[in-house]
Amino acid sequence: MRIAIIGAGIAGLTAAGVLKAAGHQPVIFDKGRGPGGRSVSKRTDHGGIDLGLPYFTARDPAFRQTVDQWIEAGVVAPWSVEPRVLPEQQPARPQARLVAVPRMSALARHLAEGLDLHCSVQVSEITRELTGWVLRERQGESLGEFDGLILTAPAPQSQSLLAEPCPRLAARAATARMQPCWAVGLVLEAPLELGFDAGFPSSGPLGWIARSGSRPERPHLPEIWLLHATAAWSEANIEWSQDAVGEWLTQAFADLINRHPVVTERFVHRWRFARARDALKAEGGYLESEDILCAGDWVSDGTLEGAWQSGRAAAHRLLSRVGAASPVDG
């Protein structure tokens, strides 16, 4: 069975892996230049800079087992960090935090190995024909016919694609409102002696900061700090220029640490759909109407773990529909 998967984030890649293991032919389409969604990294002269997902956690036993396999494969490592609440310097809630190595995009590339993945392709229309699902790109050219369909794109994009073929699912996607996030990477002239490597600012425009070199297999020099604005600040200033955002958040960082570091380079990225404000927490981990399935972090609980669970659940549901035996997860 040939199955189209729209979105090459963790949910889409996980679903594709399950379907391929069951002997089917998943084909993944993503408008980005590479797989991973918000877990991608920006390539620079200083190595990959993680301007997206800062880390992830593993609570479910099945997911922890999969994470152990990723660690054994050398694509994930624990991040031994003790973030502070700033500027109070109080310890944040302890958690076992995990990151992909040597950059966050390594996990998606690992999951994409051996899959039929088409990046830089924006699906603009899906229609139900007598022979199956037909996908078309922005210029109207057909991307092929498929026996099954799983959407794992962010909720607003899924809503747009589903408006005509499945208004019921489009309405559900509309309720999963997404939050934006402005992210900045600061390359400093000299290291900072701060006494902490990461923190959650309790006020102001910043919601998260971290020293990149404290993460496993990242270079310590030059020192790079990763800054994430709060969802509220990002939404209020979503149309600002990158230069304006970079200057504002750099000053906020300086005010927070009460220092004025010399910045030699600055990288800025806008995530319009960074995380779900109202994740649906759908029963079963997926949405379904007739023969369309939706999966992703916005369908589950907004986390990378939730995206993995959702993608896996949608794939198993599709397998059950065609009478296939559900394989053991890899």
From TrEMBL:
Family matches, as PANTHER family: FAD/NAD(P)-BINDING OXIDOREDUCTASE FAMILY PROTEIN, FAD_NAD(P)-BINDING OXIDOREDUCTASE FAMILY PROTEIN
Organism: Spiribacter pallidus
InterPro entries: Amino_oxidase, FAD/NAD-bd_sf
Domain of life: Bacteria
Name of the protein described by the UniProt record: FAD-dependent oxidoreductase
Domain (Amine oxidase) ranges: 100-319
Pfam families: Amino_oxidase (PF01593), NAD_binding_8 (PF13450)
